[in-house]
């Protein structure tokens, strides 16, 4: 069983999500888009002043870029990859999110 067998929706949705993730990665890696980071944009100005917004965006962009690369690999080679890759992808995304949260709460503080 391949990854293609698990796919139930149209392929264009998968590619649209990939493009959105790529654009968000570029936006965050450029140091912009802090208003899109949940928790940062809703916190008070006093709390926001404790964080370096540029570093925060770059950490979020790095994490998004990792997920984007995983999505790209799964999209391009979905006919050749085994179905178990979906579980591995899910685990790697979870680890990536945990690493992003830890980095945002440590190195991004002023």
Report on this structure.
The protein is mainly α. It contains 5 helices and no strands. Helix 2 (11-29) packs antiparallel against helix 4 (53-76) and helix 4 runs antiparallel to helix 5 (85-106). The protein is elongated. The termini are far apart.
Question: Would you spell out the secondary-structure blueprint of this structure?
Answer:
Elements lengths: L2 H4 L4 H19 L15 H4 L4 H24 L8 H22 L4
Helix pairs in contact: 2-4, 4-5
How helix-rich are the residues, as a percent range?
Answer: 55-70%
Report the strand count. 0
Number of helices: 5
Strand content of the residues, in percent?
Answer: under 5%
Structural class: mainly alpha
Shape category: elongated
What distance separates the N and C termini? Answer: 49 Å
Q: Which regions are unreliable across 5 or more consecutive residues at pLDDT < 50?
A: none
Q: Note the main sheet.
A: none
The succession of helices and strands, N to C, reads HHHHH
Q: In oligomeric terms, what are we looking at?
A: single chain
What labels would you give this structure?
mainly alpha; 110 residues; single chain
What is the structure about, briefly put?
The protein is mainly alpha-helical and 110 residues long. The chain has helices at residues 3-6, 11-29, 45-48, 53-76, 85-106.
């Amino acid at each position: 069983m391949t990854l293609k067998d698990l796919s139930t929706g149209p392929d264009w949705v998968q590619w649209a999500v990939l493009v959105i993730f790529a654009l968000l990665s570029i936006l965050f890696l450029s140091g912009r888009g802090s208003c899109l980071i949940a928790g940062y944009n809703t916190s008070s100005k006093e709390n926001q002043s404790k964080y370096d917004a540029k570093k925060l965006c770059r950490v979020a962009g790095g994490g998004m870029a990792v997920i984007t690369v995983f999505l790209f690999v799964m999209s391009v080679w979905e006919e050749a990859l085994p179905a178990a890759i979906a579980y591995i992808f899910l685990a790697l995304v979870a680890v990536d999110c945990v690493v992003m949260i830890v980095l945002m709460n440590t190195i991004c503080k002023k």
